Each structure stands twice: as C-alpha cells, then as structure tokens.
Amino acid sequence: MATASASTHSEQSDLRGLKGVIPLIGLTGGIGSGKTAVSDQLGKLGAGIIDTDVIAHQITATNGFAIEPIRKHFGSDYIDENGALDRAKMRTLVFAKPEEKKALEAITHPLIRQETIKQALQLAKDGVPYLVFVVPLLLESGTWLGLIDQLVVVDCPVETQIHRVMQRNNLPRSEVEKILKTQASREERLAHADFVIENQGTLSQLTDEVNQLNQKILQIQKG
Ligand code: ATP
User: Fold this and answer.
1) How far does residue 16's CA lie from ligand 1's centre (Å)?
2) I need a labelling partner for 207 at 20 to 30 A (CA). Which of 39, 47, 62, 146 fits?
3) What is the pLDDT of residues 102-116, one digit of tens each?
C-alpha cells in the first residue's frame, strides 16, 4: 500500500487536517439502500467520492495490499486461484467466529484508512468542491461522526433493502437478514442524519433528490 506521501507527516496526512479546508460529507445507509447509486450521481456532479467499500474490495482483489497479510494469518485456503480473497469462504468464517472477524479487520482497517486518506488528500488537491466518504458502517465504527461536517443517510424500507440485495447478489433472504442484523437500525441512522435521501421511488426520482442534495451542500459551502 502506498503511503499518502513518503514525506507527509502523519498529522498532515490525517483526515483531520482537511477539517475546515473542504466540506467533509459522510454518506451511509443500510445494505442495498442505494449508497452507490447516490455516490455515483454525486460524483458525476463533481463531488470527490471516497468509497471505503470499493477500497476494501481493491485491497482484497488480486495483488491487493491485504492479500499477503491475509494469507499469513488465515492460510492459502482463503485466497482463490486468482490470488484474490475468497469472499464466500471468508464470509462464512467471520460469521461463525467473531475473533476471526476481528483478525481480518485488524489487517484491513489500517489499509483502508491509509488509502482513504490518500484519496481524500488527492481529491482535495484536485479542487473538488466537497468530499463524500461513503462508509456503510459509519455509525457503527464510532470515529467518523466526530470528523465529518454533515451526514447524508440513504434510506428505504427494510423490505426494499432485502429485495434489492437478494436480486443483486443472488442471495437467499436469510443471508440478507443475517447481514442486516449486524448493521445499525434505520431509526439509529436517521437520528444522526443532516440530510436524508429517500430512495424508495424510481432511479429517476433518486437523481432529482441527489441533484437537490448537491445544491444544498454547495450552499452550505458558500454560507
Ligand atoms: P451495499 O450496501 O450493498 O453496497 P448500496 O447501499 O450501495 O448497497 P446500491 O448498490 O446503490 O446500494 O443499490 C442496491 C441495488 O439496488 C443495486 O442493484 C441498485 O441498482 C438498485 N437500486 C438502488 N436504488 C434503486 C432505485 N431507486 N430503484 C431501483 N433499483 C435501485
């Protein structure tokens, strides 16, 4: 994993260094709520998007920075023939053994954080009007709320989440429900929201909502 810059001091490379320099927007929502759909649209409107889920996938893809440490801890059984993390196998393990989930996170979280910082600094340097950190478990992780300026929550009924994820990932209902149990409730997320994107209509309605959100964030920036 490349560091933000070999000569960058840790305080500077920390996200806190960006506070007050550029608006820091957190974007969260339950599984299948539509975070990616929203962040893709915000990206098209010019926002700087840092998606921690995308980063987590990159570092565990073929030749990703987390692969060798994962192999060392869990063994080659968890690495597939392409040299990527065997996600299905790992998912089964970490659901069954919380201590192995912790071990996996001890490997991946620092790498995700490092890459998050690197991307945020680069986007800020590129001159984007604001940064959006897409963090599925933003509330659960504890540290993000103290950092971000505004929180956007993408919301829809749980039944809609379940149907979308069953369809998208070809998962049985029971698997989606298991994942939902590990996430904050709809109510908990909404209680922390500065902006709520209601994503229970069509994708075209979502686009309208996201356009309005972008305008509101740009207004805050001006004000
Ligand atoms: P995850 O937490 O699993 O990463 P997510 O919150 O990023 O999910 P998306 O991937 O954006 O959610 O959306 C989940 C699925 O639902 C996708 O297949 C997406 O195309 C679809 N989807 C999202 N919003 C809508 C909508 N308003 N109408 C129809 N389909 C939608």
Assistant:
1) 30
2) 146
3) 999 999 999 999 999
